[in-house]
Amino acid sequence: MNPAIIPAEWRHIGAIARGMRACDRRECAAMGHGPKQALRLGLQASDQAFTVMIDGRPAAMFGLVVRCALTGEAVPWMLGTDALHRQARALLQQGPAIIERLRRSGRAQGRWRLSNWVAADNSRAIRLLRRWGVAVEDARVTRRGVDFHAFHLDGGDGREKETQECVNR
Prior knowledge:
This protein is α+β, with helices and mostly antiparallel strands. The protein has five helices and eight strands.
């Protein structure tokens, strides 16, 4: 059964947090959060967030936190369970739709840039990001003992913004 993507709900958090992948738990801890807290913060801060359902159960949650609507800068995030690994092929195929859904959720107009960090030892996530066309930088930054790579995806229509200053930071 292919994963279904539905609007995220608060009630999905418990199941995802209990079964969260070890690599995602390490990333959360390096950012100073436990699994439930990270999911709550992500859901609360996101313009829109979504849950990946596998076999009728919440398997992951993802969303987009708009950093600056004027420049199209936003932070995509995704935290999930090991059930995602069993659906790797479906996730790979749904990648462009997932990225488009994230971009639309941030209401980006013109140019946009999605960027965040991924743990350097999270090889499956790095491989998936690269297959989706996301640039993962080689340089590493260490936070609370965990090495991270920056990643980003740029897109849009190429028109320059009238202002490069972001008034909502």
